[in-house]
Amino acid sequence: MSEQALRRKWRWLRHVAWILAAHITLALIAVIVFFGSGAGNPLIRRIAIRRINAMTGGRTEIRSLSIKWLALHGSIKGLIIHGKEPAGTEPLFASE
After folding, report:
1. Rounded CA gap, 43 and 20, in Å?
2. Is pTM beyond 0.90 here?
3. How many Å apart are CA 58 and CA 60, to the nearest integer?
4. What are phi and psi of 93, to 5 degrees?
5. DSSP conformational letter for 23
6. Are the CB atoms for 69 and 35 separated by under 8 Å?
7. Alpha carbon separation from 40 to 17, 66, 69 (Å, rounded)
């Protein structure tokens, strides 16, 4: 392989690496903005409900879920877990 062809190959690979790095950076910024703005909280709420339901075998309600990603702080309000109790009785777990 000639030196000219080798330089062209490395220049092409360098361009590909820069474009890939730019795409990864933009994707990370988009994820940070999405979750940092609170727009991702409903998604996380649904995932949390699904996981709690799977662990307890019951039905879960969450009134609100708030996560502050930069402060690494989260809060859940109105968590109610219904077990296999009959309708009209107190839930298995409730917190306000």
Report:
1. 28
2. no
3. 7
4. -145, 135
5. H
6. yes
7. 30, 10, 11
Task: Give the pLDDT of the chain (96 residues) as one tens digit per residue.
Answer: 788 888 888 899 999 999 999 999 999 999 989 988 889 889 999 999 999 999 999 999 999 998 888 788 899 999 999 988 888 889 988 998
Q: Give the model's pLDDT for residue 44.
A: 92
Structure tokens at 84: 């296999």
Sheet strands (E) in the chain: 59-68, 73-82, 93-95
- Residue 16 phi, psi (nearest 5): -60, -45
Gap between the terminal Cα atoms of the chain: 72
Instruction: Print burial letters for 27-52: b (CB count within 10 Å at least 16), e (below 16).
Output: eeeeeeeebeeeeeeeeebeebbeeb
Name the token pair of 62.
């969450």
Helix/strand/coil for 72: coil
What is the largest distance, in Å, between two alpha-carbon atoms of the chain? 83
Task: Give the phi and the psi of residue 60 in degrees, each rounded to 5.
Answer: -115, 145
